[in-house]
Design a protein that fits this description.
- The structure is a single chain.
- By secondary structure, the chain is of the alpha/beta class.
- The chain folds into two domains: about 5-115 and about 345-365, Enolase-like, domain 1 (2-Layer Sandwich), CATH 3.30.390; about 120-335, Enolase-like C-terminal domain (TIM Barrel, Alpha-Beta Barrel), CATH 3.20.20.
- It contains twelve helices and 13 strands.
- It has helices at about 60-75, 80-90, 95-110, 115-120, 140-155, 170-180, 195-200, 220-225, 240-250, 265-280, 295-300, 350-355; strands spanning about 5-20, 25-40, 40-45, 125-130, 130-135, 155-160, 185, 210, 235, 255-260, 285, 335, 355-365.
- The strands form three sheets. Strands 5-6-7-8-9-10-11 form a seven-stranded parallel sheet. Strands 3-2-1-13 form a four-stranded antiparallel sheet.
- The protein is globular and about 65 Å long.
- The model has no long low-confidence stretch (mean pLDDT about 100).
- Bound molecules: N-succinyl methionine and magnesium ion.
- The site of N-succinyl methionine (SMG) has 13 residues, from loops.
- Magnesium ion (MG) binds near residues 186, 212 and 287.
- This is o-succinylbenzoate synthase.
- Pfam families: MR_MLE_C, MR_MLE_N.
- InterPro entries: Enolase-like_C_sf, Enolase-like_N, Enolase_C-like, Mandelate_racemase_C, Mandelate_racemase_N_dom, OSBS/NAAAR.
- Keywords: Lyase, Magnesium, Metal-binding.
Length: about 375
């Protein structure tokens, strides 16, 4: 497949409400899309990180640079999606940037032979149960009101963002008010091993899992914490490859894994992590990065693989956006439907994309 053009489109889309985590508050989805034009078809992908390196070390400005100067030159003019990882391997890190590039190329490739990404990855269902991630609130009544709304919409599982000072009481309040709803928490690295006794207080609430309590490079700390609490530990930030997953599983640092294709360099590595986890009997679920429809579509396809036995952070477009870049994804009976069209199965609506685009750059043009 010959690449003719690679474009980067900055987009900024307001969120319907602020999303607060232990590391910061987001009010706008501010990122970029990649558009890859080839001799066979066109492909799209979304960069998953934000303008500031708070969730992970990558951020929009750095990704733009590494794509332009180091990644795109290594995959042009002729490449297949499977070659992207080996060809860019020499460039350390930058997995979210690599994921965007691989996904746009994979989309073009799959479209060129009319195959949906779900079929390519091995999806075994056409719809997946949806969970919703609920940010840190100013008060417990505000939290209860929001959770009530999401449950009324039909979400199958609630994830509460936690941090020191916002953990036991909000969890207790939601448990008491909503009974045995599927409930889990995500700390985004906000605790240390010294908090083990405090985190053990969450054991009584029967949580599905506790996501990433400690620093991302602290696999041993998670293994030690796992010996001191009953709530299953799930790793997110710590897992950036299938090798990481194998290590964490071997060291008993997690009993569940959150797979975000972006964090691990793309859908091909995400599938390898799924396969490693399934081989070890470790349940996985699909994480989210507040993606627009461009990222949401292929995430839904991944979430339809058989090892994804827990509901993912795969909510409806309207959870975050009054207007999405694609046809909106909707929740139906608590489920999200996997796109069925070729490639990632979605594309930006041109007029909407134009309105939300703040800048466009050409990273490669074949002469
Ligand atoms: O896409 O619904 C979503 C967001 C889910 O909570 C979510 N993601 O650590 O899992 C996570 C966070 C990262 C958000 S980064 C701004
Ligand atoms: Mg997380």
């Amino acid at each position: 497949m010959k690449i003719e053009r690679v474009e980067l489109l900055h987009v900024a889309i307001p969120l319907v409400s602020a999303f607060r985590t232990s590391f910061g508050t987001m009010t706008t989805k501010d990122t970029f899309l990649l558009r890859v034009v080839t001799d066979a078809a066109e492909g799209w992908a979304e960069f998953a990180a934000d303008p500031e390196p708070l969730y992970c070390s990558e951020f929009v400005g750095a990704a733009e640079l590494v794509l332009a100067q180091h990644l795109v030159p290594r995959v042009t003019p002729e490449v297949t999606a499977a070659e992207v990882q080996p060809r860019t391997h020499a460039i350390k890190g930058h997995k979210l940037a690599k994921a965007a590039l691989e996904t746009a190329i994979l989309d073009a490739e799959l479209r060129s032979y009319g195959m949906p990404i779900g079929t390519f990855l091995g999806a075994t269902t056409d719809r997946v149960p949806a969970g919703v991630s609920v940010g840190i609130k100013n008060s417990i009544p505000e939290l209860i009101g929001d959770v009530e709304g999401y449950l009324a919409e039909g979400y199958a599982r609630i994830k509460l963002k936690i941090e020191p000072g916002w953990d036991v009481e909000p969890v207790r309040a939601v448990r008491e008010r909503f009974g045995d709803v599927l409930l889990q928490v995500d700390a985004n690295t906000a605790y240390t091993l010294a908090d083990a006794d405090h985190l053990r207080r969450l054991d009584e609430f029967g949580l599905l899992l506790m996501e990433q309590p400690l620093e991302e490079d602290d696999i041993r700390g998670h293994a030690l914490l796992a010996q001191r609490i009953r709530t299953p530990i799930c790793l997110d930030e710590s897992i950036t490859s299938a090798r990481d997953a194998a290590t964490a599983i071997a060291l008993d640092a997690c009993r569940v894994i959150n797979i975000k294709p972006a964090r691990v360099g793309g859908y091909l590595e995400a599938r390898r992590i799924h396969d490693v986890a399934v081989a070890h009997g470790i349940p996985v679920w699909c994480g989210g990065m507040l993606e627009t429809g461009i990222g949401r579509g292929p995430n839904l396809a991944l979430a339809a693989l058989p090892g994804f036995v827990l509901p993912g952070d795969v909510s409806a477009s309207r959870r975050y956006f009054a207007e999405d870049l694609t046809e909106p994804f909707e929740l139906r009976d608590g489920f999200m439907h996997v796109p069925t069209g070729p490639g990632i199965g979605v594309e930006p609506i041109p007029e909407t994309l134009r309105r939300f685009t703040t800048a466009t750059k050409v990273l490669y043009a074949r002469d």
